[in-house]
Structures are given as structure tokens and as C-alpha cells.
Specification:
The protein is an alpha+beta fold. It contains nine helices and ten strands. Strands 4, 5, 6, 7, 8 and 10 form a six-stranded mixed β-sheet that branches. A two-stranded antiparallel sheet has the order 1-2. Strands 3-9 form a two-stranded antiparallel ribbon. Bound molecules: zinc ion.
Length: about 260
């Protein structure tokens, strides 16, 4: 999909003069360094063209325009109002990447991530996901639900479900891939398809071997214990292995050569 430049901030309605990073600059820098990404440090960026076909583009640095949303929030909202959300996410991904023991634990303890201020910071983290989803919806010219804006302003319901999971195959090959970062495809059900009166959205973010699924009003058959809820000190981690044994051996051979 080709994005045109929106004019107004989807949070406050004022002139939009900044574009949030779709792939967080600080996360890229944390994993791959400040750049430029050239030579031995070159990075490939998989993207989709207007017809949904994958293509490859070099990523020159962590501030490249190709990993930013179009300008759809104002500098006040981006740099002041939502900055605590960004900081909470920074602390969160660093903790997850540096504390591999969470895989054996099977859960994330927010007090360990944020310290004694975890209740406050946990909410900021939640709002970071709201901010990112809102930017993506607006960039796709999809309506941002009022509850996302209200929740960012501290008055909305927590209708976004967030789940964290561990991709064990990525974990296995993480030393080779050095931590893939990206976002999944956005899916949505318009209000005409689903019997709800509002659109439903599904999206995901991933970094290293961590997957974060975001569901806004998405019809789901079962709720489980893996949803991140404000006020709960911990959340369970779902672990999954997308590759079967044969595929895993193939990947192993491609990376390390010879027999596994
Ligand atoms: Zn604004």
C-alpha cells in the first residue's frame, strides 16, 4: 500500500509534523549499532510492494525514512506526551533481550523489568503499543478507534489485548540472525463484516525471538492467561516452535553447513 502524507495528528488533531519510527530507532541501535549499516554491517530490510509482494531493500541506518510512518503525529504528542511510553518500551525490550531466563521461567515479572514503579511504567508500556498501532492504522487510512486515543489520554478502556510469546526456533538461531526486528501484516475486519459496531484489528511486532501480538476488539474463541493486563504484576509467556524437525535441520545446515 502506498502511503500518502496525512496532515493531522491522529492523537490531538493538530498539524502533524513528525513520523514515528515503525521499527524503533533505539532498538535498532541497541542490536545493530548506530550505523551506517554498510559493508560487513549491512542490513537487509524485507518489505512488501503495493501488490503485497516481498522485496528487499538495504537499510542504511536507524533513522532511515523507510522504517518510519508518514508524518501523522505532532511533535508535542510524539516528543512530550508519549515520550514516557517510548522509554517504558526501551526498558522492556532491553530486559527481555538481556534476561533469557524468562524462557525457563515462563513469565515476565514487571517488577523485575521496571522496579518498584512497575504499575506506572507497565501502563506506559501498554500505551506504547497503542501509539504504534494508532500510527499504523492512520498510515493505512483506517480509523483509529476513539478508545485508543482516549486511553492514551488516560480516560479510555483497555480494549487492546497484548500477548507476548517466545519463538523457540528464532531463539535457537538467534546467535546467527542477531535478532530480527519487524512488524507483521495488519489484518482488520470492518464493522460490516463482524457483528460488532466497530472495526477489529490484529497486528504484531517482533524483535529477537520475542513476538508481541496486538488484538483490538478481535473476535477470538478463547481468552487465555497470556494477555497482558494492567495491574497484574506478571504475564505468562507463550512458547512456540514454528519449524518441524526437518525444517529445523535444513535451517541448521544452511547456517552451519554439513550435518547437524
Ligand atoms: Zn498531537
Amino acid at each position: 500500500m502506498k502511503w500518502s502524507e496525512p496532515l493531522n495528528c491522529w492523537i490531538c488533531g493538530k498539524h502533524a509534523d513528525t513520523g514515528e519510527h515503525k521499527i524503533k530507532k533505539s532498538l535498532l541501535t541497541y542490536i545493530y549499532g548506530k550505523g551506517p549499516y554498510k559493508g560487513d554491517n549491512s542490513l537487509s530490510h524485507f518489505r512488501k510492494d503495493e501488490n503485497g509482494r516481498d522485496f528487499l531493500k538495504e537499510l542504511q541506518g536507524p533513522n532511515a525514512k523507510q522504517i518510519k510512518f508518514p508524518k501523522n503525529i505532532c511533535s508535542q504528542c510524539n516528543n512530550v506526551k508519549t515520550q514516557p511510553f517510548d522509554f517504558a518500551y526501551d526498558a522492556f525490550y532491553k530486559y527481555l533481550i538481556e534476561n533469557k531466563s524468562i524462557i525457563d521461567d515462563g513469565f515476565i515479572d514487571f517488577e523485575k523489568v521496571f522496579g518498584s514503579n512497575w504499575r506506572f511504567e507497565q501502563e506506559n508500556l501498554y500505551k506504547y503499543f497503542l501509539k504504534l498501532l494508532g500510527c499504523d492504522l492512520d498510515a493505512h487510512h483506517l480509523p483509529v478507534p476513539d478508545d485508543i486515543v482516549n486511553c492514551i489520554n488516560g480516560i479510555g478502556d483497555y480494549r487492546l489485548e497484548v500477548e507476548f510469546s517466545i519463538n523457540l526456533d528464532k531463539y535457537l538461531f538467534d546467535p546467527y540472525f542477531k535478532g530480527l526486528i519487524g512488524t507483521g501484516d495488519l489484518s482488520y475486519l470492518s464493522k460490516d463484516i463482524y457483528s460488532n459496531d466497530k472495526n477489529s484489528y490484529k497486528w504484531s511486532i517482533f524483535f529477537s525471538y520475542i513476538n508481541i501480538d496486538l488484538w483490538f476488539d478481535w473476535p477470538r474463541y478463547s481468552k487465555n492467561n497470556f494477555s497482558f493486563r494492567i495491574g497484574n504484576k506478571s504475564v505468562d509467556l507463550f512458547c512456540f516452535s514454528p519449524l518441524d524437525n526437518e525444517q529445523r535441520i535444513e535451517v541448521y545446515k544452511k547456517i552451519y553447513g554439513g550435518c547437524s
